[in-house]
Amino acid sequence: MPATHTGADTVTALLTTADDLLTEGLDGDGPLTPAGRARGAAYALRIALEAAVDATLTAEAAGLGTISMRAKLLCLRHYAGPALAHRVNALWNRLSEGCKYHHDEIGPRHAQVHAWRATVGTLVAELAAAKVVGAFPQQAGA
Q: Which domain of life is it from (predicted)?
């Protein structure tokens, strides 16, 4: 990602990419199959949600820049509250599963990815509006 993009710019660009993948070529034209478009849109949505989580956590300032997204999602409970963190975690897990290719499974359905797109948009807005509960607790004796 170019350094000139802010977190909000990146999230907006990723949501636009997901929208484009879900709307372009619905008639079957082009190099991507409908299943490939749905899976690509799921990837874009997952990355957008991860960028919104990073922005909420102010990952670099809190020293969370190098930890996994699963660990960041655990930390999100402190920063954004347990209810919002649970919803973000549940959707991130669904998106992650939708991004994986399994030879014996059909990828996410177009309608399902549309529903995820709406939910990601809502959660991104809620994360942007979330008030940080407080400074991240430091471990005693460190």
A: Bacteria
